[in-house]
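User: Earlier you gave me the apo prediction for this protein. Now I'd like the version with zinc ion bound, so I can compare the two side by side. Same sequence as before, with the ligand SMILES added.
Assistant: Got it. Here's the input I'm using:
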Amino acid sequence: MSEPRIEITDLGTWGTAALLAEYDPQGDVIRVNARAVERIRAACTAAEAAQFVTCAIAHERYHRAHPAAGEHETRHHAAAVSGLGEERLLVLLRAGARAPSAAPHL
Ligand SMILES: [Zn+2]
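And here is the structure of the complex with zinc ion:
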């Protein structure tokens, strides 16, 4: 299997949820929301912002490799790969979301 392209770019919002990352099968590209990375850097640490990027890429790569996998399994995998753990990942996802009330989607 070839490797996907990785982009860190402004994804804006997706409905009422804050879109933190996405996989686009058409272009075979994983996009990580640059705004979310900046928000996490501001609210947490630069190191955690970098871990978030690792986690988001791992998450989208897992979706790409296992299209039938559910969100829980995918998030569990990405939390383990990034070394964040699920509890801290949730804190970062909330920090990365546009508004505290918006449901973060990775
Ligand atoms: Zn997902």
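For your comparison, keep in mind: The chain has a mean pLDDT of 88.
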